[in-house]
Design a protein that fits this description.
Blueprint lengths: L12 E6 L13 H17 L12 E11 L8 E11 L3 E10 L7 E10 L11 H8 L5
């Protein structure tokens, strides 16, 4: 059973996205895997905006350990999208991101995704505590 669709006000950060012709399958709707690609890209854009993903610095990095997607309403090319993101939980080393995909100016999401990421040492890939500066940046995206 699916949870009811969320509205835009459930999310803290938004990224505009554009579907592409190649995203559609032979039935005229977007491939399932493309949803996760777009969610991942929007999440990474939001993290880059906050100083994450500098792999050359030697600072701890975040790796995906779980993700999933719920399809609520059809999305297809040439839809213009907005992906809303919120941090739903911050643990010692893990963070749960939740995202909603909105068509054009719709107020209700068409799809929903979650990604759980674990902060790891960039050399050993072993879990470490989220550094204070990263934790502060994640807090800017928290919304319950």
């Amino acid at each position: 059973m699916q949870d009811p669709a969320r509205h835009r006000d459930a999310y803290a950060v938004f990224q505009p996205m554009q579907t592409r012709w190649r995203d559609n399958d032979q039935f005229g709707h977007m491939y399932n895997a493309t949803y996760l690609e777009l969610f991942d890209e929007a999440m990474n854009m939001s993290l880059i905006d906050r100083g994450f993903l500098d792999h050359a610095s030697g600072a701890p990095i975040m790796v995906v350990v779980e993700n999933g997607c719920q399809f609520l309403r059809e999305v297809a090319y040439p839809d213009r999208l907005t992906i809303g993101l919120r941090v739903a939980h911050i643990g010692r080393s893990s963070t749960r991101f939740e995202m909603g995909m909105f068509r054009a100016d719709d107020d209700v999401e068409s799809a929903r995704s979650h990604f759980v990421m674990v902060t790891v040492d960039s050399a050993t890939r072993r879990p470490v505590a989220i550094p204070d500066d990263q934790r502060a940046a994640l807090e800017t995206m928290r919304k319950s």
